[in-house]
Every structure is written in C-alpha cells, then in structure tokens.
Amino acid sequence: MRQVIVAGNWKMNASKETVNTLIMGILSGMADVDSNVIVCAPSPYMSQVEALITHSQLHLGAQDLNENASGAFTGEVSADMIKDFGAQYVIVGHSERRSLYGETDEIVASKVQVALDNGLTPLFCIGETLEQREAGSMEAVVSRQIQAVIDRVGIGAFKNIIIAYEPVWAIGTGVTASPQQAQDAHAFIRSMLTQNDASVAQTTPILYGGSMNPGNAAELIGCEDIDGGLIGGASLKAEDFLQICKAG
Ligand code: PEP
C-alpha cells in the first residue's frame, strides 16, 4: 500500500508575510490529514519554513539543486545547503527547468543522483508537451526521461525516488488531464518500472501534476496508479491545498 503524497511547488511566489500566512493556515488544518505533505519553498524562505514547521507533520522540500557539491556556481544551491535547512525532498527536472533553463535528461539524471547521494528524496518530474501528445509520443517521451535516470542510478534507486508525471500542457493552464488520461500515463510508467523490477514498481510513488485543484483531486488520486499530487497554483492557498491533502 503506497501512502498518498501531496507536494506543493510554490515556484517563484512568496514573501515573508505570505509564507507565514500560508504555513500557519496549512498547519491549522493538518490534524485530519493522513497524506504525507511536503512544501517546496523558494530557497530564501527555507529557513523561515523550517522554523515554522518544527514538530509538525509538514515536510520541507527545495525546488531544484545544482549537481555540483560547492564552488563557483553563482546563484545555485547545493544538496548540502538544502539539507542544512532541514529539507528532505527536492524537485528535480521540473518542465520549467527543462524548457526555460535547458536542463537535458542527462543533467536531470545527474541531479537525481546527487540528491540520492546526499540522502534527499528527489521528486523527479517527467511529462510530454502538447505537441508530443498530439504526435502520439507521450510514451516515448516519458520512457526516454525515465530511462536516462535508470541508466544513471539503477532501477533499485527508485525505492528512494518519487516520480511526478506532469503533462506540460496541463501545468499552470487550468487544463487538467482527465482521470483516464492520467491513469493511462501512470499505468504506462508503472509498467515500464515493472519491466525493470516488479517490486520496485509496486512501491515507487507516482504523483500527478498539472492543474490539480480541490475540485478534481479526489477523482485523480482515486485512480489505481496515482499516488498523490504535485501542486503548483493551488498550493498557494492554504484552504485549497488542505482540501487536496484531504482528498488522498
Ligand atoms: C507544477 O508546476 O508542478 C504544477 C503542477 O503547477 P499547476 O498545479 O499550477 O498546474
């Protein structure tokens, strides 16, 4: 039985005031949440979030990491820095990193490896663009993205990886994949893992991301191979985020 995981990706949206309000709001409703809940904060706010969530059920994640340990990489954040603020999770390979910052499958695989080597759990994002879906290549795209990581860290490492299937056409667009579209993609991803290692495939969480909201979360998370959600826009409102957390 896989536990439901709900992770909020705040992206580049925060201020000291909104972080305070958001975290206090989420904490006030956590008593009846059974899901594993993660908030992925922008780096400058990780210290603030760490302090606010001490002794709570909330977990902290970062939104990206650099594949190097330290050094002359202006603007970048290392695995050690992330851990220093009590984070246990890090988003890797988000489609915005792939499309806006040129992250290739190889770079993403290196980041997954560095996260794992440092005891961080990667929220490893994959997904096809609208053009790729319309060309019928969703399966080929997600296979390629997953294979790059299997080639780097081995299938056994997926015991410590959370996959987030995020069709790019659904991210931030208000267009959600239908439960059937999402379940089909998740079943395909799990079958690919099964071909490599059946027991790892049964335990690896596969989250759905792409305009998940309080209105569609229960149906999506209710699908057999959907183990929770990676939430962008709806993670910025405590009430909406909590409703999604409770849908699991
Ligand atoms: C995301 O960016 O990971 C995401 C799923 O965003 P949204 O929920 O806003 O579509």
TrEMBL record:
Pathway it works in: Carbohydrate biosynthesis; gluconeogenesis; Carbohydrate degradation; glycolysis; D-glyceraldehyde 3-phosphate from glycerone phosphate: step 1/1; Carbohydrate metabolism; erythritol degradation
Alphabetical GO biological process terms: gluconeogenesis; glyceraldehyde-3-phosphate biosynthetic process; glycerol catabolic process; glycolytic process
Binding site for substrate: 9-11, 172, 211, 232-233
Gene Ontology terms: cellular component: cytosol
Superkingdom classification of source: Bacteria
EC number(s) on file: 5.3.1.1
UniProt-annotated location(s): Cytoplasm
Cited Pfam families: TIM
Group of enzyme by EC: isomerase
Catalytic activity annotation: D-glyceraldehyde 3-phosphate = dihydroxyacetone phosphate
GO molecular function (one): triose-phosphate isomerase activity
Keywords: Cytoplasm, Gluconeogenesis, Glycolysis, Isomerase
Active site: 94, 166
CDD domains: TIM (cd00311)
Protein's job: Involved in the gluconeogenesis. Catalyzes stereospecifically the conversion of dihydroxyacetone phosphate (DHAP) to D-glyceraldehyde-3-phosphate (G3P).
Complex and partners: Homodimer.
Family to which this protein belongs: Belongs to the triosephosphate isomerase family.
Protein name (record): Triosephosphate isomerase
Gene encoding the protein: tpiA
